[in-house]
Amino acid sequence: MLGEYVPVLITLVVAMGLAATFILLTTILGPKRYLRVKMEPFECGVEQLVSPRRRFSVKFYLVAMLFILFDIEVVFLYPWAVRFRELGWYGFGAMMIFLGVVFITLAYEWRKGALDWD
Amino acid sequence: MAEPENELHTDEMILNIGPSHPATHGTVRVLATLDGENIVNADVEIGYLHRAFEKSCEHGTWQQAFPYTDRLNYNSAIINNVAYAMGVEKLLGIDVPERCRFIRTIASEISRVADHLTCIGPSAMEVGAFSTFLYFVEARELMWDLIESLCGARLTNNYVRIGGVKADLPADFAEKLKAHFVKTRQLIDDVDKLLTHNRIFIDRMRGTGVLSAEDAIDWGWTGPCLRSTGVPLDLRKDEPYLVYDQVDFDVPVGEYGDNFDRYLVRMEEMHQSMRMVEQLLEKIPEGPINVEDTRVRWPAKQLVYSRMEELINHFKIVFEGVQPPKGEAYAAVESPNGELGFYLVSDGSGKPVKVRCRPPGFANLQALGPILKGGMLSDLVPSFGMINMIGGECDR
Amino acid sequence: MPAEAIFMAGKIGFVFFLVLNLAGVLGWVERKQSALMQDRIGANRAPIFGITAIGLFHPLADAIKAFTKEDFIPARAHKLFHTLAPFIALVPALTAFAVIPFGDTLTIGGETTQLVVADLDVGVLFVFAIMSLATFGVVLAGWSSYNNYSMLGGLRASAQMLSYEIVMGLTLVGVFMVYGSLQLTEIARAQGEYFVFGGVNTWIPKWGILTQPLAFFLFLTAAVAESKRLPFDVAEAESELVAGYFTEYSGMKFLMFWMAEFVEIVVISALVATLFLGGWQIPWLHPDGLHVPFTAIVVGLPSLVVSMMGVGAFLMKVFVLIWLQMTIRWTLPRFRYDQIMRLGWKMILPLALVNVVLTGFVVLLLNR
After folding, report:
1. Fewest CB within a 10 Å sphere: which of B20, B174, B178, C271?
2. Of B165, B205, B211, which is closest to residue B368 (Cα–Cα)?
3. Quick check: helix, strand or coil at residue A47?
4. Which residues on adjacent β-strands are paired with residue B41?
5. Yes or no, beta carbons of C70 and A30 under 8 Å apart
């Protein structure tokens, strides 16, 4: 059963090896010249005004929360979609109720303005 | 324990757009205070390209200021030349010959097309449409070819002289212009097809950077930016100078005063300018291209080398400069971005006492902060592009 | 067992050879295609012994240049994460290829193998799972650089990629319902069948684009958005955020983001080709040869030839989809951030839900 994953693992290892080699080579081959001003982060030619490591707008968190909500629902759909023909109208009806809930959730978020950005 | 409101506050981020930023094609700095993606406040800081244009002009003779004016709005240098020359001619109280006025008008309108191409192309590129940018660069090259055939230079033209122009139209100018205009119209049509009905482009431009007509007038807007708000102010129509009263052209105006209207106004103005040039080339009279006034006009080289009086005259004009009588004058032209004016003061000597330039970009840029406020960060790009602030002109 | 090992080594080798070369060549294709669209000549230098090969050596020159450039890490950046970010961005994109079938079965010397590195029964889920890891690379790059533009780019990218992951997942539910499998080889094989109406064989293959036309367009849009290329490239919008999340990267690390982007294009194209364009299938070509439509005539072909034609057909479909994505890239302007979110949540997501319901109805009605 898990034997199927051996090729995936090999691919993963090869890919990681490749990427690691890239990083290693560029670290070794490139020149190194450090200047204080050069090591500053790019800020359009002036000094950095504020640190980027601060709280950022809560709106970005909202997307993450919505993602978790809907992603789980999508995952629930997958096994049903695969066994859909066998389950027939009964399974379809059951899933329609579930999708109805998803629809209502989406409509609610829409109305509440959670999907708006302005 | 802290108040819950304080616990849950979100920080505003201050993002520095400029002075050296891909969106600020001119060195300007916009300090944008962001709440997520929304601009809460925007401070515009100018002056990064200040090089004392007005003061520099006072150190040379009246003629020597022409190359400096080239570097105001370098996309349409000839229009700056014309504006300055008109001011000096007003001081001198001379009229330029009819043919010269036609040539100046033709050159100005070609420059206007080049300027609008340079405005729309990069603005479209900054909202992501890279191909259209290169189409317009190609069209602009064609315009510059025409300018080059007039005066030999492509960018800083230095074409206009006090009381005339440097050279007459070349013999094959009309043919060349015809061929180039065909190609330019084709390129403009291509871009028109790619952008004007493109849903993404409309979504980016429509409803962003809106300014009402009253506010636009209050901020001192002129040119396509003002016309996009629906005010049909155009010096070429309202106070005809050169030969604009002899040509037939329309002044396009916008409806909503947003970025899309500014784009549409500029697109239409290019067609109107090309229409004007074609009319002018049909009507252009024969005759001299320079005034015959010996106070202003350099004598011909042949005479300078052969006759004493002419040699002295040449020497005096070059070294002492043209000497307008004591007084002051203001001359304004409709530059591609709005009213470009020169207020000149003379004390009777060969050097200007004061050369004050009224650049359109300076007044137009004032309103950038207010029109950005409340919008998204991405709106900064088309708004800034469509105001078309030219660093050289705004900061002088 | 040795035959199996040889096959596996061959397949992994082939996939890496293909993907890495494609990623390199795509750099050239992008330059040349954009040049063609913009009345330019495009890259045509970088000679080897005086041979320029219309600029084909440019990717090689790029690689050499990138390797020998200074590897720049800003002073205040988080060094480990800064180094790790391009790694995380590139590896998942490369690994995703393990489950994409590039051909039907291949029989050499009595040994038969499916032309896919790993024929997982949860193939599509695996692709989604592994591709979603790439989000971490982008977010880490944005956060670790200690740069305001990077930070905002990373935030934009994460929000956008999360949103479009849902959309991508949901649009494919209809496809699974029609073909009854998550296994990519199964889905591709099922597309070799023909539509049969009332016992009459129409000889029209059951490609996903015909059974799920709405899902095809929605998925393609979502996939382009997921790859963060124009018109969805707000995360690296150069006119707003300089270079977005990879502003502070140089040398090969910068190139790795660039490569990851190209590899992602190939993954998306391969996925769309497999799910909607019949994978390796060529209409009327079956393992035993070409079936002439509306007759029982079969033009016999050796199975090796059929296998190779299948691989060729798959690559051709991938190329067409890559070309399509490049054309989109060089034609359209960029969306604004809120417009991307609106498109994802308010347009594609409801439409995908409707697609699931409609598919359910139609499939169950036709099953009668």
Report:
1. B178
2. B211
3. coil
4. B33
5. yes
Residue C205, helix vs strand vs coil: strand
Digit-coded pLDDT (tens) for A48-107: 777 777 777 777 778 888 888 888 888 888 888 888 778 778 888 888 888 888 888 888
The 10 Å CB-count burial string (b at 16+, else e) for A9-44 is ebbbebbeeebeebbebbbebbeeeeeeeeebbbbb
B35, B10 Cβ separation under 8 angstroms: yes
Residue B19, preceding peptide bond in cis (omega within 30° of 0) = yes
User: What one-letter code names the amino acid at A41?
Assistant: P
Whether C146 and A25 lie within 8 Å, measured CB to CB: no
Domain edges within chain A:
2-112
CB contact under 8 A, C34 and B23: no
B228 by Cβ neighbours in 10 Å (0-12 / 13-18 / 19+) ranks as buried
CB atoms within 10 A of CB B308: 8
Query: What are the boundaries of each domain within chain C?
Result: 71-367
Q: What is the CATH class of A2-112?
A: mainly alpha
Q: Is C161 within 8 Å of C228 (Cβ atoms)?
A: yes
Beta strands in B25-125 (DSSP E): 29-35, 38-45
Residues of A with a Cβ under 8 Å from any B Cβ are: 43-46, 49-50, 54-60, 117-118
Nearest to C67 by CA among B30, A25, A68: A25
pLDDT bin (cut points 50, 70, 90) of residue B10 is: low
Given the structure tokens 């409806």, which residue do they identify?
B255
Return the residue of A nearest to C132 by Cα.
A71
| Concatenated DSSP letters of A75-116 | HHHHHHHHTHHHHHHHHHHHHHHHHHHHHHHHHHHHHHTTT-
Q: What is the pTM of this model?
A: 0.85
Q: Which of chain A's residues have a Cβ under 8 Å away from the Cβ of B35?
A: 57
